[in-house]
Design a protein that fits this description.
The chain is an alpha+beta fold. The protein has 2 domains: about 200 residues, CV3147-like domain (CV3147-like fold); about 120 residues, CV3147-like (Beta Barrel). Helices cover about 30% and strands about 30% of the residues. The protein contains 10 helices and 16 strands. Strands 1, 2, 3, 4, 5, 6, 7, 8 and 9 form a 9-stranded mixed sheet that branches. It has a 7-stranded antiparallel sheet with strand order 14-13-12-11-10-16-15, with no helix packed on it. Helix 8 packs antiparallel against helix 9. The longest helix has 17 residues. The termini are close together.
Length: about 375
């Protein structure tokens, strides 16, 4: 497998599709982020990608992305340099130069934000991320889980406001303070956080997820071109499991504390006729139940695709009457340790009665 070195204009559609699938409904809809990256490339800028293995141990890497509720992005357009301003504010505060950026989460629009900012700043983006999916809270990054601090962090909104979080007593307080600020900022902002050395990133990043998103998106597009089943292609690519096909018959979604929360109810059809499904939402899809029995929960990935096209449906564009396929994909092993499950397992979201049972993996994924 050739290592990814650069994201080209022709790659952006596939990256956006793959990132939306890995986002498990969250991370923001990547379509606008994809268009913004395309605009930067057409200005003559580049999106360089550095494989984790080639990252110098002493390189200063910053985790970067958007913070807020994905549903807000439907109506509130970004100015375009929020994350760049957050990054520059962090450089000024630390009196340093940032060498590379990495996605806080590969899911959704937050896969595109570091690419966009890296192109604007003229530095590379690392082929990896801190979740291997999307989660709603910042302490759910692998760097936080395995001992790194998110502070100092810098936030910037489209109005020119910048907030620096110098230090906190623990990682949850970074999330608490940032969430309070983003609500005041209109539920959407850019954030640069967790300045760390390359040696740490090599140990605790979920690796090669930019490559994974590109390969996964290309798998969907190739299946569409061949009139093959894109959902079957996704399942094969990611060692996934089909949970249900059905129609959305009820949707509850509202903003609460800077998150989009709620659930969808699904009436099964096809092989699942007569089944009733429910997916709980907090920015991302958290728990899937069939006939009131939990089948899959975080940190494994619950993915909703359009049943005909195989394209991902994110939480902010869910609608009554949509015909969907619900898939489950296995999460990275870094999210399955007892240390990680204390932060990203079902109990961390208030599901004290649910025990995480990891999905099996059939075989190693081939991204060639």
């Amino acid at each position: 497998m050739a290592e990814l070195r650069e994201i080209l204009d022709k790659d952006l559609d596939a990256v956006a599709i793959g990132a939306a699938i890995l986002g498990t409904g969250g991370g923001g809809n990547p379509y606008i982020g994809m268009l913004r990256c395309r605009q930067e490339l057409r200005k003559g800028r580049k999106i360089d990608v550095i494989p984790i293995g080639e990252l110098p141990d002493d390189a200063l890497v910053v985790s970067l992305g958007g913070i807020g509720a994905p549903v807000v992005g439907v109506e509130k357009m970004e100015q375009g340099e929020e994350c760049l301003r957050a990054m520059r504010a962090l450089e000024a505060d630390l009196n340093c130069t940032i060498d590379a950026l990495i996605s806080s989460e590969i899911g959704g629009s937050n896969a595109m934000e570091p690419m966009l900012t890296a192109a604007q700043a003229g530095i590379p983006v690392v082929d990896g991320d801190g979740m291997g999916r999307a989660f709603p809270e910042m302490q759910m990054c692998t760097w936080s889980i395995y001992g790194h601090t998110s502070a100092p962090s810098a936030m910037a909104d489209e109005k020119g406001n910048i907030v620096i979080i110098k230090s906190t007593r623990n990682e949850v307080w970074v999330e608490t303070l940032a969430r309070a600020n983003v609500v005041a900022m209109g539920a959407a902002a850019g954030i640069a956080m967790a300045p760390m050395r390359g040696s740490y990133v090599k140990k605790f990043a979920v690796q090669s997820t930019v490559t994974q998103a590109l390969s996964l998106g290309n798998t969907v597009l190739d299946a569409q071109r061949r009139n093959a089943d894109p959902i079957a292609a996704v399942l094969a690519h990611e060692d996934g499991q089909m949970l249900m096909t059905g129609k959305i018959v009820d949707l509850e979604r509202h903003l609460k504390g800077g998150f989009a929360v709620g659930h969808i109810s699904v009436a099964g059809f096809g092989d699942f006729k007569g089944d009733a499904g429910r997916i709980d939402i907090q920015n991302e899809f958290l728990v899937f139940r069939r006939n009131d029995k939990v089948e899959v929960c975080v940190p494994d990935l619950i993915v909703v695709l359009d049943v005909d096209t195989g394209l991902p449906i994110t939480t902010e564009v869910l609608r009554y009457g949509q015909r969907i396929a619900v898939l489950a994909l296995p999460c990275d092993d870094l999210l399955r340790t007892p240390q990680a499950l204390a932060v990203v397992g079902p109990a961390a979201f208030g599901y004290d009665d649910i025990t995480f049972t990891p999905m099996p993996r059939i075989e190693a994924r081939d991204d060639s």
